[in-house]
Design a protein that fits this description.
By secondary structure, the protein is mainly β. The protein has a single domain, classed as Immunoglobulins (Immunoglobulin-like, Sandwich), CATH 2.60.40. Helix content is about 0%, strand content about 60%. It has no helices and ten strands. Strands 1, 2, 3, 6 and 7 form a five-stranded antiparallel sheet that branches. It is elongated. About 20% of the residues are buried.
């Protein structure tokens, strides 16, 4: 299983996050295969310095049969001004785990 995020076909919406906006992550996997699961591990640092961790499951959205890709959506919530969010995108299929090589992050304005 190959998994990706922060590309033209699997982006963060919105790219530049402002306070109160719902953040949605699009995630791609290859190949299309039953039994896949996808999730996001997040670390939220509040402006006062408190750190919280959470895991958010992604929901399957659609397949692109031509490219043999599946697309997933993770709704990770809305944040406050000054928050800093770091997240990793992970998945598994038949006990094999996959992970995006990059750690993603954004600051909330």
């Amino acid at each position: 299983m190959v998994i990706w995020h922060n590309t033209g076909d699997a982006s963060r919406i919105p790219e530049n996050v402002t306070a109160g906006e719902e953040v949605v992550l699009w995630i791609g996997t290859y190949p299309i295969e039953p039994g896949q699961t996808v999730w996001v591990d997040m670390r939220l640092t509040k402006s006062a310095g408190r750190t919280l961790s959470a895991t958010q499951p992604a929901e399957w959205h659609s397949n692109n049969e031509q490219r043999n890709n599946s697309y997933w959506i993770a709704q990770i919530g809305a944040f406050d001004q000054g928050d800093h969010v770091e997240y990793s995108v992970l998945g598994s299929c038949h006990e094999e785990q996959a992970r995006c090589a990059d750690l993603f992050e954004f600051d909330v304005s």
